[in-house]
Design brief:
- The complex is a heterodimer of chains A (774) and B (156).
- With 774 residues, chain A is α+β, with helices and mostly antiparallel strands.
- Chain A has 22 helices and 19 strands.
- In chain A, strands 13-16-17-10-18-19 form a 6-stranded mixed β-sheet. A 4-stranded antiparallel β-sheet of chain A has the order 1-2-3-4.
- Chain A is extended, with a radius of gyration of 37 Å.
- The two termini of chain A are 27 Å apart.
- By secondary structure, chain B is mostly beta strands.
- Helices cover 14% and strands 38% of the residues of chain B.
- Chain B contains 2 helices and 12 strands; from the N terminus they run ββββββαββββββα.
- Classes of the chains: A alpha+beta (774), B mainly beta (156).
- The interface between A and B is large, with 48 and 48 residues.
Chain lengths: 774, 156
């Protein structure tokens, strides 16, 4: 590579607008050593892969006169003076981005990076292009007038304080003290919980009375009687009524406590479930795409149940246990410190045991939960696909799959139970050993006349309870772990920030005209760059047809416009306002969506039509149905508008369901209408009926229609032809036919097939998007 | 498809692989593995930039040394699936979690967004997708060292 830094003639080679981010400190001295006098760094990109795709840090630096680069393999720098014909491009494949530098004769260099740096790489290219322009023409390019994010230079739009690109990338793990975060749900019931706690405390105290009574009963009644004294009936009555009173008190208090806590428990459970579900509904489609239904259902169903029982019962039990133990300890010490000391000796051993088992149980229970979700997933996968299963006679295979999941569940449970089952008996054994020690030490003390028989009896009575509490405390280990595992999975949902976040400072749209503008929109799904650099303006009331092979990015564009996903680059504006700064629900109210596979909810036809506007009057519903050409077939149904439609509207044909969904879209009277292959799943006759319904719907609205049958788009004002995620042609049918480009070829291909089966060849194999492979 | 492979391959100045078929027409070509995980060396397609198939190679071994070297080098320059050899540490057992790992391509960090990004392949193999979509492979989790296995186990 040439090492001669070309000096451009311009006197002030640095663009006034370059808002430069300082180089990372580690690179500064290295880079400065490379620079010649008065050479200025304009932009840089740290790359994390070398040419042979090993991890290693490298750097590409743009100065006012050249491009400097160093990869991880060698300490040498490559230098390319900026000159005419130089071209820096980027592309990506399987998570790796490539920057390639070309001139007219060939490739001069290429660099690799992982996609985390992709936005930065795009920015570098912008800078290089601007500086190249400047070096070649000597004319300073006009600076972008918009405010840009100081970190990544993404343009910020009205209502955006934070850069949507930067703020999206927060990936901090949730705190490990997950259980304490549940306080948020327990807080509204803190007084009830406190009452429950005090009641438990009182119950505990009441149960501590009887053993204490055994002491005087033994020493003042039974032993004197054995020594020849008559029984003091008055004293016996007193003590026995004391015992009865304590028992009754414990009974009443225990009842009140259990009742209050059960009430609280149910309420916390309800709040937890509702909050989680509400949060879940706000998450973007991206989230649902990556999760399995069975898993989510298990989280909201059984996990919440487990957690609320934990908060209201086990946690309080544990607290009472701790108090009980301290109270008992106090009583024992006050009676006889030495015997108390011996009694409490096994306690540290048990505490240690609990601690060691804790870790193993926790991971075990987390595993059990995941496996359980796996079992439900098999069900959730198979039951909706039952037709396919039966058609291919794969019942036994699916049964085997379920059996395997169950077997896995069994194995994991067996493993956990091995540890867990050992736990209880060990505590019992320790209890027995503890009793043995007390017996031995107690008899020895009695023989030395240090204590009375009554004291020993009281100790034995106390210690029975004492160890029962320890036993129940040891159970808290498992429930805490289960609840913690459950809480983690719940908070996984609750902590998930929607990738289509609500704006911090929302901009409200009073009346929407329906002008949609896409500015350099790019979208990436995982490693796949689905759409790239799309710019398009759709005027109010205009109908635009999106045309292209399947996988060319049509549906992605629609999903972006609906804001089911947020753009990775660029921005979408409605009436000049970034859709990310409009509240999501408010924005979507303006959009009517008709999908290829209409989804009908369980309920009546009227309810389904009124889904987007639940307060619609019957007249409105009928008017919408009429306009959607659905009125007549609805009337033919036995219960008319009150007919129930099943989970997927099974009683209705595809065309009928589609017309109901058109009526649904008509009723909310949206300014923007999106038809995503609305007619492609029905036959041609039905299509004509639907088309009539659609013609009513389209009138006066900004419409974006996707159709692979090009004939259905003849009403469109403009056709936008997409190919591999980019707009390749825009124009009306005649213009595009005259160009003889992409559209012409698509149209010809369909025209040839028009007699056989309407245009389905466009969806045929081999045409899938290979955009990510180039 | 035929196994004779009567096509020519060479690399041009722009670093592109150029395919010349039996009809003498030259196309830019990209090799694509049909089963990148299941059977990486079986079934390789040469496709043009539009994704149309130019030729099908049943097995890499069917090609002569020169062409095989071209295809292999092109594949190597495009394929990126680091194999995890060791997990040094993870930031937390709850996701999203940052893992510090040693791969066959050097040490790096990956961010695991959720447990569902760990895909079980046949037997003991795992495929882990990080937040940027890079796929990390664990060929045999039984063969990892005890420390790595213990960490991994918490996510499975």
């Amino acid at each position: 590579m040439t090492q001669s830094p070309a000096t451009p003639t311009a006197l002030q080679p640095i663009l006034p607008t370059s808002s430069q981010i300082p180089l990372p400190e580690a690179w500064q001295p290295v880079v400065e050593a490379q620079l010649v006098k008065e050479e200025k760094v304009l932009a840089w990109l740290e790359i994390d892969l070398n040419t042979s795709l090993h991890f290693g840090k490298g750097l590409i630096v743009l100065t006012d006169r050249r491009l400097l680069a160093r990869t991880g393999d060698t300490p040498e720098w490559q230098s390319q003076p900026l000159r005419e014909g130089l071209r820096l491009t980027r592309r990506d494949h399987a998570g790796v981005g490539s920057l390639e530098l070309f001139d007219a004769t060939g490739r001069l260099a290429h660099w690799r990076y992982t996609l985390g740096q992709d936005v930065a790489a795009g920015r570098l290219i912008d800078h290089v292009n601007r500086q190249l322009d400047f070096v070649v023409t000597g004319v300073a390019p006009t600076p972008p007038a918009q405010a840009v994010c100081p970190k990544c230079e993404t343009p910020l739009l009205a209502g955006q304080d934070e850069c949507p690109v930067c703020s999206k990338e927060e990936l901090t793990p949730p705190s490990t003290w997950t259980l304490f975060r549940l306080w948020r749900f327990a807080r509204p019931y803190r007084w009830q919980l406190l009452a429950g706690f005090l009641l438990s405390l009182a119950t505990t105290a009441a149960t501590l009375v009887p053993p204490y009574m055994t002491m005087p009963l033994m020493d003042k009644v039974l032993i004197p009687y054995q020594n020849g004294k008559p029984i003091d009936t008055g004293l016996v009555t007193l003590y026995l009524s004391g015992l009865l009173g304590a028992a009754l008190l414990a009974w009443v208090l225990g009842w009140a406590r259990t009742y209050i806590l059960a009430l609280v428990s149910e309420r916390i459970g309800r709040d937890l479930r509702t909050t989680t579900y509400e949060h879940l509904l706000k998450l973007s489609q991206e989230y649902f795409g990556g999760k399995r239904t069975g898993d989510l259902m298990a989280r909201i169903g059984s996990e919440t149940d487990r957690i609320n029982i934990f908060i209201s019962l086990h946690f309080l039990d544990f607290a009472t246990d701790v108090l009980m133990i301290s109270m008992t300890t106090l009583i024992l010490v006050s009676i006889n410190p030495w015997l108390a000391l011996v009694t409490l000796l096994p306690l540290p051993v048990i505490a240690f045991l609990i601690h060691t088992v804790r870790e193993r149980l926790r991971t075990g229970f987390e595993k059990v939960d995941r496996i359980w979700a796996e079992v439900t997933n098999v069900l959730a996968d198979t039951i909706p696909g039952i037709r396919v299963v039966k058609a291919f006679a794969q019942e036994s295979r699916e049964a085997a799959r379920f059996r395997a999941a169950n077997q896995h569940n069994l194995e994991v449970n067996d493993k956990v139970n091995k540890v867990w089952s050992l736990f209880g008996p060990t505590v019992t054994l320790l209890t027995e050993v503890g009793l043995l020690i007390i017996w031995g030490f107690g008899i020895w003390q009695i023989s030395r006349n240090d204590i009375s028989v009554g004291v020993l009896t009281a100790f034995l009575a106390y210690i029975g309870r004492f160890y029962t509490r320890l036993d129940s405390m040891s159970r808290i280990v498992s429930v805490t772990q289960k609840a913690a595992a459950g809480a983690k999975r719940i908070f996984d949902i609750l902590d998930h920030v929607s990738s289509v976040p609500e704006p911090a400072t929302p901009v409200h749209l009073p009346a929407v005209a329906g002008r949609i503008e896409l500015r350099n929109v790019g979208f990436r799904y995982g490693t796949r760059s689905v759409t790239r650099d799309i710019s398009l303006t759709i005027e109010p009331g205009e109908m635009v047809g999106l045309v292209g092979h399947s996988g060319s990015g049509k549906s992605t564009m629609v999903n972006l416009i609906c804001r089911f996903y947020d753009v990775s680059e660029g921005a979408i504006l409605i009436d000049g306002v970034d859709i990310r700064s409009v509240p999501v629900a408010e924005y979507r109210k303006n959009i009517g969506l008709v999908l290829q596979e209409p989804f009908l909810f369980f309920g009546t036809i009227a309810e389904n039509i009124a889904y987007g506007k639940p307060d619609a009057t019957r007249e409105e519903i009928v008017a919408a149905a009429r306009a959607a050409h659905a009125h007549e077939f609805i009337l033919r149904l036995p219960h008319g508008y009150d007919s129930l439609v099943g989970e997927r509207g099974q009683a209705l044909s595809g065309g009928e369901r589609q017309r109901i969904s058109i009526a649904r879209a008509l009723l909310i009277d949206p300014k923007i209408l999106i038809l995503d292959e609305a007619t492609s799943s029905v036959d041609t006759t039905t299509e004509k009926e639907i088309q009539k319904a659609l013609d009513n719907l389209v009138r006066g609205r900004t419409t974006i229609a996707i159709a692979h049958r090009l004939s259905t788009l003849r009403e469109a004002n403009r056709l936008v032809v997409l190919d591999r995620g980019s707009v390749v042609e825009v124009g009306n049918h005649d213009e595009l036919m005259a160009q003889e480009g992409h559209y012409y070829r698509l149209y010809q291909a369909q025209a040839r097939n028009v007699d056989t089966e309407g245009g389905s060849d466009l969806e045929a194999g081999g045409e899938d998007d290979k955009g990510d492979r180039e | 498809m035929s196994t004779t492979h009567d096509f020519q391959l060479h690399r041009d100045a722009f670093g592109k692989l150029i395919f010349t078929g039996s009809d003498g027409e030259a196309h830019e070509a990209l090799p694509v593995r049909a089963f990148p995980i299941g059977a990486p060396d079986k079934g390789i397609a040469l496709v043009d930039p539009h994704g149309h198939e130019l030729a099908w190679i049943d097995a890499l071994a069917d090609l002569d040394a020169e062409r095989r070297q071209l295809v292999e080098s092109e594949l190597a320059s495009r394929e990126f699936m680091p194999v995890i050899e060791r997990i040094i540490e993870v930031s937390s057992y709850a996701t999203p979690s940052t893992w510090t790992i040693v791969t066959n391509r050097g040490e790096t960090k990956l961010i695991l967004k959720g447990e569902e990004d760990i895909r079980r392949l046949a037997a003991q193999a795992l495929l882990i997708a990080d937040s940027n979509g890079i796929q990390y492979l664990i060929r045999d989790r039984g063969a990892l060292d005890a420390h790595s296995r213990k960490i991994l186990d918490r996510f499975l």
